[in-house]
Amino acid sequence: MRTELITVRTGGSPAVVDITREAASFVQSERDGLLNVFVPHATAGVAIIETGAGSDDDLLTAIDELLPTEDKWQHRHGSRGHGRDHVLPAWIAPYATLPVINGQIALGTWQSICLVDTNGDNPIRQVRFSFLEG
């Protein structure tokens, strides 16, 4: 197994950051196997979605509707509504595992690998790529 940790700047507000290019670069010299993408944070997740056509903004809107930034959360440190950031990984898992075929991630035509981070208190995130040869 081979692994690499990258740093992603998400900024100070909720963000969906496309990390497909970095993931593709990580596996380009591999053959067949599995790529695992993992975010070692309690307030971020990994989503496989279309980007650039508004879907990333739609995802953030849906998160706001499902998990509003109100003061109803028991977990209260950080910015207003930060408790919702801690339940986000229950809906958007902090990992994704994808097939790699001949050094290419087997994504669908419009699919991208995205880091989803609703926690503006932590603008820098880590993402771990791990490749398991098949």
Automatic annotation (TrEMBL):
Gene3D superfamilies: YjbQ-like (2.60.120.460). Pfam families: YjbQ. PANTHER family: UNCHARACTERIZED PROTEIN YJBQ-RELATED, UPF0047 PROTEIN C4A8.02C. NCBIfam families: TIGR00149_YjbQ. Belongs to the UPF0047 family. This is Secondary thiamine-phosphate synthase enzyme.
